[in-house]
Amino acid sequence: MALIINEECINCDVCEPECPNGAISQGEDIYIINPELCTECVGHHDLPQCMEVCPVDCIDKDPKHVEDKESLYQKYLKLIG
Fold first, then answer.
1. Quick check: helix, strand or coil at residue 33?
2. Which domains does the chain have, with CATH numbers?
3. Is the pTM of this model over 0.85?
4. Which of 28, 35, 69, 76 is the most exposed place for a label (fewest CB within 10 A)?
5. pLDDT digit string (tens) for 8-65?
6. Closest CA to 34 of 77, 81, 79, 74
7. DSSP character string of 34-72
């Protein structure tokens, strides 16, 4: 499942450089996560790095993009391929 940043985002800029897939970018009002690039850090780290560094805990699982760990790993393989 890809992740999503909710409206509690304070635009602190700490999540964007932590994403190994470049899935996080500045949106119109808050940071956004591209679900096509988000693997929840599967293939890179044990835990999603954006969630680890977020000071306001505004990153959640995106119910619109449900994926299991194997699907996330396959996406990771395509991204690095």
1. strand
2. 3-80 (3.30.70.20)
3. yes
4. 28
5. 999 999 999 999 999 999 999 999 999 999 999 999 999 999 999 999 999 999 999 9
6. 79
7. -TTT--TTTTT-SS-HHHHH-TT--EEE-TTS---HHHH
